[in-house]
# Entry
Amino acid sequence: MVRFLPLARPWFGLVAAFALLGVALQGVATALDPAPHAYFTSTGARVANVFAFFTILSNLLVGVAHVLLAVDPQRDSPAMRVLLLDAVVGIAVTGIVYNLVLAQTADPRGLHQVANVLCHMVTPLLAVVGWLLLGPRGLVDREVVLISAGYPLAWLAFTLVRGAMIDWYPYPFVDVVAHGYARVAVNCLVVAVLFVGLGFGALALDRRLPGLAAR
# Structure
């Protein structure tokens, strides 16, 4: 719908800027302050390990998807459909899990705190609100929802295999050493169900909400 074009491009650009800024600041904070990632002894290893976090990957997806939308707010392709749904649902899961489960044990300081607010609060809010108000609409169907579930499943598989190899896990709820495989399996199932449930929720809303129509 043409009437949404003047708002859509700057909004998508703003979301992309906050998402990518949060990732960049987290990388800089990790390079400057080794304390939160002291398990990894070199600066390069600590910075590289930042990208093992679901939060960072989801913010990257949001950044990439919204850069593409800022260039063309009505962009549509099979890859774009999966990318955008993974970005929006992934960042929603990030905000929900962090603020309901992880925030009570987190204690970021300095630049880590700024990155934390951007990645866990600002970007999730802006990305989800932007999708609800602007879309673009018509990009979600059952096949897209099912394909998009590959993202969290691949992350969980990578995290568990890597964790078993190096004895380190990015979040307490996937820490097999602390909780055992049975408890972690249940935790992973909850995250997977939340992700797929939000995907089908997006499917139910997609054609009922106003917004910018994809081509």
In short: The mean pLDDT is 91. The chain has one domain: 2-206. The CA atoms of residues 52 and 170 lie 7 Å apart.
